[in-house]
Amino acid sequence: MDETFCFVGCKQRRNLTNDCDRGDQYLFMAIDADTKLIINHIIGKRDAGNALALMEDLKRKVSGNFQLTTDAFQPYRNVVRYTFGKEIDFAQLIKIYAVPNQDLRSERRYSPPECISTRVIVRSGNPDRSRVSTSYIERTNLSVRLFNRRFTRLTLGYSKKIENLRHSTALFISHFNFCRVHSAHKQTPAQAAGLTDHVWSIEELLGFVSKNDAEQKTESAI
């Protein structure tokens, strides 16, 4: 799992009222490395509360033992232990970056610094070190930025309301899981995970979403 930066309405430094629904926001996502299925996600501030919400939702959706890799975001250490205890194999991948020379900083302003080494810290269980990697989720983050305009940097495509960002992201993830054939295994992530036996059309996806919305409204009315 990992977090992807975006913002709503304005950058955080201009969020003078400290409105939690404006300013810097992060898309937290968890994916299965083999099927590429995006298992769950949440959008909000990059804090321990949202990390915990993501982890508790992950526990409801994935049963049994599994291996989890996160980056160095500090709250993960405690929220994973609080949510799963010793039920899973958990490791954090710490990336160490080079500090660019002073005269190159302006040229590298919009480029990531060079990763010169990594360090694996095992937090629980006995994870397979050969599979401790955040590359799977980072590649998915790239797809998010490529196919969802609201995450593209240095544009005017950012969301003006957090509700619009959440709806747009949910629609993208649904399309990614059920409609888009992944190059890694030539089928959709949902097919690879055994959730469906065919590639969904856009009409099928939107029909499913509409049906779910209608059912939820009926349940609320009852």
Helix-strand topology string: EEEHEHEEHHHH
Category from helices, strands and their pairing: alpha+beta
Main CATH class: Alpha Beta
Distance from first to last alpha carbon = 37 Å
Structurally, the number of domains stands at: 1
And the CATH topology?
Answer: Nucleotidyltransferase, domain 5
- Strand percentage lies at 15-25%
- Assign an overall shape: globular
The pLDDT mean sits at: 91
How is the main sheet built? 3 strands, antiparallel
- Gyration radius, rounded: 19 Å
Strand order of the largest sheet: 1-2-3
Low-pLDDT windows of residues: none
Strand count: 6
Classify the helix fraction into a percent range: 25-40%
Number of helices in the DSSP assignment: 6
| Second CATH tier, the architecture | 2-Layer Sandwich
